[in-house]
Specification:
about 290 residues, alpha/beta, six-stranded mixed sheet, four-stranded mixed sheet, 12 helices, 10 strands, about 15% strand, globular, binds octanoyl-coenzyme A
Length: about 290
């Protein structure tokens, strides 16, 4: 037991701290939101859907919209029935970036002293898998938000870009880092230095998105994928997600060590035992997230 506790402590160490603040309250569908719509989807209601809904501004990510996405994500994180989350926008825009009108008169002094927009990366603290279903524009902060998710599915007319340079600024929510890791230096440099957008097809070829679907079936397909994920063990899924994410933070040796510890940890779960026993008994596993 002492050895298991020591192993747990060591494995937990590299995790980033969960954002501070009071624990989010579970919400009823759509309750109290101005800029988003939320719903539970899937046959068993085990998929949380967050839809950005500020169509007149092409889902420009104003402070209120980001706060609501964070609240919804954290509520789905706390909801034991939910195993995966889909984040989407509208057919014309996933999100056209940070709200330029909100930023227009911002000053360096204020940005620096208030940590302007530092709450943008809360999505990356969610332990449950998050799928971005991108139709239309995913630009600037919109592209960065999609890249904070674990999987990106794109509608066939989606466009990805980091056009901040055209506004006299640069990406500030991970665009220079995540895009470069996703598509490689040359294409990332070209997109970030010219502000040019790429199509869904180019994004898939470059490895930014995993699948492309017709515009009208994209969200449904993302929900299907989320449902498939949600049917697996939630606790083991969280370990798999943590391990893949470590590949972006650690050396190969460190990452392999973490993976091995998490692999060993799966043997402390009932779900691992159930999964292997079900295989041997030629039946479908029933995971209890224990
Ligand atoms: N911010 C505010 N309003 C926007 C934004 C935006 N990013 N994008 C579109 N809108 C508004 C427009 O102002 C317009 O409003 P209105 O009708 O009141 O004039 C409405 O949405 C519709 O837009 P358009 O008329 O321009 O629609 P088009 O179809 O002609 O063009 C485009 C669509 C190409 C998407 C165009 O709107 C556009 O270029 N938008 C700006 C894209 C952009 O530059 N995005 C990057 C913003 S900067 C950023 O994201 C930095 C993130 C840093 C995060 C840091 C975290 C720490």
């Amino acid at each position: 037991m002492a050895a298991l506790r020591a192993l747990l402590l060591r494995v937990r160490a590299p995790l980033r701290p969960v954002a501070a603040g009071p624990p989010p309250r579970p919400f009823a569908s759509g309750a109290g939101f101005e800029y988003i719509i939320t719903e539970k989807k899937g046959k068993e209601g085990n998929v949380g859907l967050v839809q950005m809904n500020r169509p007149k501004a092409l889902n420009a990510l104003c402070n209120g919209l980001i706060n609501e996405i964070n609240r919804a994500m954290e509520a789905f994180q706390q909801d034991p029935a939910v195993g995966a989350i889909v984040l989407t926008g509208g057919e014309k825009a996933f999100a056209a970036g940070a709200d330029i009108k909100e930023m227009q008169n911002q000053t360096f002094q204020n940005c620096y002293s208030t940590g302007f927009l530092s709450h943008w990366d809360r999505v990356t603290h969610i332990k449950k898998p998050v799928i971005a279903a991108v139709n239309g524009f995913a630009l600037g902060g919109g592209c960065e938000l999609a890249m904070m998710c674990d999987i990106i599915y794109a509608g066939e007319k989606a466009q990805f870009g980091q056009p901040e340079i055209l506004l006299g600024t640069i990406p500030g929510a991970g665009g220079t880092q995540r895009l470069t890791r996703a598509v490689g230096k040359s294409l990332a440099m070209e997109m970030i230095l010219t502000g040019d957008r790429i199509s869904a097809q180019d994004a898939k070829q470059a490895g930014l998105v995993s699948k492309i679907f017709p515009v009208e079936t994209l969200v449904e397909e993302a929900i299907k994928c989320a449902e498939k994920i949600a049917n697996n063990s939630k606790i083991v899924t969280a370990m798999a997600k943590e391990s893949v994410n470590a590949a972006f933070e650690m050396t190969l040796t460190e990452g392999n060590k973490l993976e091995k510890k998490l692999f060993y940890l799966t043997f402390a779960t009932e779900d691992r035992k159930e999964g292997m026993t079900a295989f041997v008994e030629k039946r479908k596993a029933t995971f209890r997230d224990q």
